[in-house]
């Protein structure tokens, strides 16, 4: 059975191996509840979210709950593991970069003006207190959906007990295969047309996709995708159009895909080193 | 595809550890709009219709051809195509907790035989399906809309009119339409006779319609528990009706028309996709019932229309009253003023006011403590409501035989009964009504 709902700007689905309508309803409800909870708590578009409270704190310490703390820990580890290339404070680059398909590149001055407001190392994280300097912003947008997929899988597994597949707009995770064979999934690959759906079989674990979809600038024949190199304030050069990675959890798959994109021309060799299954698409 | 077995890199190990730490940490506990004699007239329109809050929207191209073979022998052909998408209210009321429903395709709780089959989701993803049932969940306080609603309609109308005797005209028309879940065929014939120096016309018509209702997932057994998904096969209905009318030229500047119509529908008149919420004494939802309507409906209506010529402009004002044996009574006042601005340009403001009373078997929701009624529906279209339409049409003529027009209208439906005194339902807007925008582009060419 399938239960569907909409969260985090994505169509979300939960597939369950069960014949019990009551169980499916309960599972679908548990899934939607958990996804909506995470969205409400961590969206920077929600006025009442934890992230909005932190970003609006004016440089004063904010006490955060255990879950927010765990996400901050995770963001810090990813910042360190990527040598500073993955940074949850990079969202402020949106102030000068607008990936609307046009050729309007920001000026060097505009970029230089926001660079002082980027850098996870400028954040003070003394659990349970986080201090974000005025002008800087936390944005869990690069982590949130994958995190929600893993959380929802856990929530539904606890409710239903059967084989479960959770799919949030192509980021997905499964607990185990159904009795009659592996899950068969199709992943739309950003930057391509519908026909280029990647068809995969998945027993358990997760898949996540990072790509520049329709978000890019085109100037003098050079395509600037939306994956940013926070060290320069410019988009990563020669990144693939899309990367799909398989890993044990969706959050891990998602980070591997993002790290690969951050490696630009080196995306494939980076993923080869990690020893994971991946599917890279270049224009 | 790459598949290599080797020891994880420090980065991979670090990421695995960080992911485990993160995931190991505790989380906190989705109505239509109605409305020419030349040798050949081509009238094309493109109608855009959009309901608020992500509900139904449609783009409808219409092509109308009218060929005059002389001596008042006129052939008319109309082709219409509709594509509807968006959320359609399923009849259940909003609740203070999440509600989950099955889309109409839910027919069976048995898995699809064999290995998991795939199906394509609305977003274009191919995913495994274990059984033919799809659920959707609705957030607290939100009107339950089925987000998976879509339909498309193709309709063709052909008519022929000609004189059959001095001052007597006859017409005959046929209609065929096809939707994903509905086929309709209709014929009608009419006679009209002019007398009193063509100042008076009397007319009479008969129509017959036969419909096949083929609900997606089957027609539910009316009144049964929604979770049982008791569904049968296809259904049918028929409509027989008649019309009597008189048109009188009252003065050089005033033409009046009086019509009376009667029609009787028989068969499956229930909406197969609508349900009714059942609540307990506190207002908490305890389940849902499929709606169930009587197997026949008799409707009568009277119409009084006037066209009045005032200082170069034409005022069209009408009143309609109708009632049926389901208990629905309605009154409509409609006015439009055709203002000629000169140079083949006109402006036509339009206002319409409508009020209807609820059907006898309309219930916003059912109370579990009460006996289950034989007939029940929570369809907002059967509720007591007022509706207003305000709009304007702007037209420009070119070279005497081409006209371009743009019509923009807003329709608003305000239900009377929208709340409940039950504790569990207080503060909820149980029937939020409807606002729609209608934009119509027209192009008309007379050869």
Task: Note down, in words, how this protein is organized.
The complex is a heterodimer of chains A (283) and B (447). Chain A has 283 residues and is of the alpha+beta class. Helix content of chain A is 31%, strand content 24%. Chain A is built from 7 helices and 16 strands. In chain A, helix 1 runs antiparallel to helix 5. Chain A is globular, with a radius of gyration of 19 Å. The mean pLDDT of chain A is 86. Chain B is mostly beta strands and 447 residues long. Helices cover 3% and strands 57% of the residues of chain B. Chain B has 1 helix and 27 strands. Chain B is globular. The N terminus of chain B is likely disordered. At the A-B interface, strand 1, strand 2, helix 1, helix 3 and helix 5 of A face helix 1, strand 7 and strand 8 of B. Strand 1 of chain A pairs parallel with strand 8 of chain B.
């Amino acid at each position: 059975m399938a239960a569907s709902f909409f969260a985090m700007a994505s169509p979300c689905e939960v597939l369950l191996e069960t014949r019990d309508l009551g169980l499916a309803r309960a599972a679908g409800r548990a899934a939607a509840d958990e996804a909506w909870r995470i969205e409400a708590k961590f969206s920077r578009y929600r006025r009442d979210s934890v992230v909005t409270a932190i970003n609006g704190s004016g440089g004063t310490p904010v006490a955060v709950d255990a879950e927010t703390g765990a996400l901050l820990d995770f963001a810090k580890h990813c910042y360190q593991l990527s040598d500073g290339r993955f940074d949850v404070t990079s969202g402020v680059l949106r102030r000068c970069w607008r990936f609307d398909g046009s050729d309007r590149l920001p000026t060097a001055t505009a970029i230089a003006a926001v660079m002082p407001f980027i850098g996870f190392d400028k954040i003070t994280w003394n659990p349970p207190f986080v201090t974000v300097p005025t002008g800087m912003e936390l944005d869990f947008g690069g982590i949130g959906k994958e995190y929600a997929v893993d959380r929802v899988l856990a929530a539904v597994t606890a409710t239903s007990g059967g084989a479960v597949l959770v799919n949030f707009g192509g980021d997905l995770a499964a607990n185990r295969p159904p009795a009659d064979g592996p899950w068969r999934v199709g992943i739309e690959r950003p930057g391509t047309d519908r026909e280029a759906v990647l068809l995969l079989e998945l027993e358990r674990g997760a898949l996540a996709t990072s790509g520049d979809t329709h978000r890019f600038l085109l100037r003098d024949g050079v395509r600037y995708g939306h994956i940013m190199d926070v060290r320069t304030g410019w988009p990563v050069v020669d990144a693939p159009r899309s990367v799909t990675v398989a890993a044990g959890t969706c959050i891990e798959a998602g980070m591997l895909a993002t790290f690969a994109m951050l490696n630009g021309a080196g995306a494939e060799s980076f993923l080869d080193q990690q020893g994971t299954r991946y599917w890279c698409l270049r224009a | 595809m790459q598949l290599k077995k080797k020891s994880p890199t420090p980065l991979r190990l670090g990421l695995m550890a960080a992911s485990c730490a993160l995931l190991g940490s505790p989380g906190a506990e989705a109505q239509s709009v109605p409305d020419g004699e030349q040798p050949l007239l081509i009238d094309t329109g493109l109608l855009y219709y959009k309901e608020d809050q992500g509900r139904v929207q449609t783009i409808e191209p219409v092509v109308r051809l009218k060929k005059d073979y002389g001596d008042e022998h006129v052939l008319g052909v109309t082709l219409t195509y509709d594509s509807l998408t968006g959320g359609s209210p399923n009849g259940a009321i909003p609740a203070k907790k999440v509600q989950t429903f099955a889309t109409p395709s839910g027919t069976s709780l048995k898995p699809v035989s064999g290995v998991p089959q795939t199906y394509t989701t609305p977003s274009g993803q191919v995913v495994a399906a274990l059984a033919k049932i799809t659920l959707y969940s609705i957030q607290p306080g939100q009107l339950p809309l089925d987000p998976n609603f879509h339909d498309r309609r193709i309709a063709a109308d052909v008519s022929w009119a000609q004189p059959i005797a001095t001052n007597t005209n006859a017409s005959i028309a046929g209609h065929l339409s096809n939707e994903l879940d509905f086929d309709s065929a209709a014929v009608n014939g009419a006679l009209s006779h002019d007398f009193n120096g063509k100042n008076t016309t009397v007319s009479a018509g008969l129509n017959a319609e036969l419909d096949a209702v083929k609900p997606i997932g089957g027609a539910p057994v009316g009144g049964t528990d929604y979770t049982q998904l008791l569904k049968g096969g296809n259904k049918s209905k028929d409509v027989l009706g008649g019309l009597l009318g008189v048109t009188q030229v009252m003065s050089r500047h005033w033409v009046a028309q009086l019509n009376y119509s009667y029609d009787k529908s028989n068969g499956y008149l229930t909406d197969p996709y609508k349900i009714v919420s059942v609540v307990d004494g506190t207002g908490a939802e305890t389940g849902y019932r499929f709606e169930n309507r009587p197997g026949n409906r008799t409707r009568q209506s009277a119409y009084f229309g006037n066209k009045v010529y005032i200082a170069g402009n034409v005022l069209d004002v009408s009143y309609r009253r109708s009632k049926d044996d389901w208990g629905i009574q309605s009154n409509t006042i409609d006015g439009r003023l055709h203002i000629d601005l000169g140079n083949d340009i006109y402006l036509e403001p339009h206002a319409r006011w409508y009020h209807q009373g609820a059907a006898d078997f309309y219930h916003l929701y059912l109370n579990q403590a009460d006996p289950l009624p034989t007939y029940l529906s929570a369809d907002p279209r059967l509720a007591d409501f007022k509706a207003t339409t305000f709009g304007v049409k702007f037209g420009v003529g070119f070279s005497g035989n081409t006209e371009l027009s743009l019509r923009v209208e807003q329709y608003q439906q305000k239900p009377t009964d929208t709340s409940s005194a039950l504790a569990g339902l207080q503060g909820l807007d149980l029937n939020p009504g409807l606002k729609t925008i209608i934009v119509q582009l027209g192009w008309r060419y007379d050869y």
